[in-house]
């Protein structure tokens, strides 16, 4: 299970680096900071991904607090969202070293 979590963390970190690279290239070209929201990044993946995002944002998807939080996450920069996801997955897959040491009974 830890291996799967670490791999998912690596994939999210890779997506964050790619999104950050695209944003930095666009920022240099525009001579001003450009941060792509997560929703726009998902929309670029295709119509299936866009339909998935729109299905999550429908009013019958859950309580209003869930929709508000989801809308807030989709408006954040894509690289930041992927970095947070990578950190959370890495923390979930992290193996703590024993407190007693290597040769404890």
From TrEMBL:
The chain crosses the membrane at residues 69-92. Keywords: Membrane, Signal, Transmembrane, Transmembrane helix. It comes from the Bacteria. Residues 1-19 form the signal peptide. This is Uncharacterized protein. The lineage of its organism: Bacteria, Pseudomonadati, Pseudomonadota, Alphaproteobacteria, Hyphomicrobiales.
